Amino acid sequence: MDEGNKKAVRGQLLILFLVTFIDMIGFGIVIPFLTYLVDDLATEGGIEAVGLWVGLVMTAYPMAQFLSAPLWGGLSDRIGRRPILMIGLVGNTFCFALFGLAPTLFIAIAARFLAGFFNGNIAVARAYIGDISRPEQMASRMGLIGASFGLGFTFGPFIGGELSAPAERWEIFQGTLLETYPYLLPCLVASALSIVSLLLARTRLPESLPSQERQGASGLDWLGTMRSSFSGLFSSLRAPAIGQLLWVTMFYSFGFTIMHAVFILFTEMSPADGGLGFTEAQNGRIFAVIGLTGIVVQGGLIRPLSKRFSSRSMLPIAVVITGIGLGAIPYASVEYAWLWLLPTCIVIASGSGIFQPTSSSLLASYAQRNGRELGSVMGAMESASAFARILGPFTGGLVWTLTVSETGWFSYHTVFQLCAVIMLVTFFMAIRLPSDSEATSSF
Q1: What is the value of pTM for the model shown?
Q2: Which of 121, 173, 271, 320 has its CA 20 to 30 A from that of 143?
Q3: Over the stretch 336-386, which tens digit does the pLDDT of each residue have?
């Protein structure tokens, strides 16, 4: 490849990174205030089961994303990657604003479902990288997507928390639309960022899929793609070693995403009821610390750890670390909230930061040693994780609703204890995983 082409590809990768980074900022912006928005709408509607509705709103996004991913993937094969990226950004622009203006819980759920439906950008961005990369370049270039996740998840929640309820913090916003809709400002910022991404994609990002390859793409078959996805998942779950690791991944993701639904329900709860009375801004800062820790672990610690320890030995340790952190969350007190939560969240983020790349690396090793197609096995892992992301928030919201007002064995601690128990089960599953050499002989 000549120097001119190298510069062109570097430019494409930079624009793609910026597009996905800005997209992830927009996604992360809603995290600190989503629970508060649902709480406000539930109160206005006379609804008491706030936790359950938080779970439903959070579940809507990954469910729509799971259902729509095959559609966008197939469509990108037919009309190109660039148009699909831009469609997703237009959808994000609309859906963020709709969420900030949601007058009812049903509109809030619809806004999150539509946001998930249109957000096929990450999968299409990976396909774009595959179009312009040689096999030996794939791993390092795919790291751009991981970096955009980490950075977006660091800056997004911080911005969202700081811009929530602006009329309560700045007099200039009092008596305006932003006082009536206290979470509209961060949503408008997310919409504006999506517009910036759209302009970048429109003006600076060329199409990566040649027209002759698009002409040869098969027609859209959503049902066929979904059947193939389920078939690939079930086939992989039955495979020795690979199936064991997929179950570990599913249980881990399930326990981890239960926490997503209830963490802010706990931190926003009144201290009189056992909570911390946190504001949206304080929660945004907590999630920014989680994102920053993930960047440090995956960007700086994984490489030396992987040189010293095998993926098989690190995986159970990552599960234990995460489980300890999840179980410790509800024992924070108002007086020492930050002294307790900061190290607890750093522990959780560290465990997750080790688990994600380690599980992917171990799965790739299992697949390669046993002659399985890496793409289909990785797709099975993504499907397993998607099921967990759908079930986790709903389960968390339901358990919180059933136990938050109870005392004794069941209380607001219960849902976090459930997370820890699931991680304990996952640990026992993880220590039974075979080593690389044993994985080969198990077939």
Answers
A1: 0.84
A2: 320
A3: 999 999 999 999 999 998 998 888 888 888 887 766 666 667 777 877 888
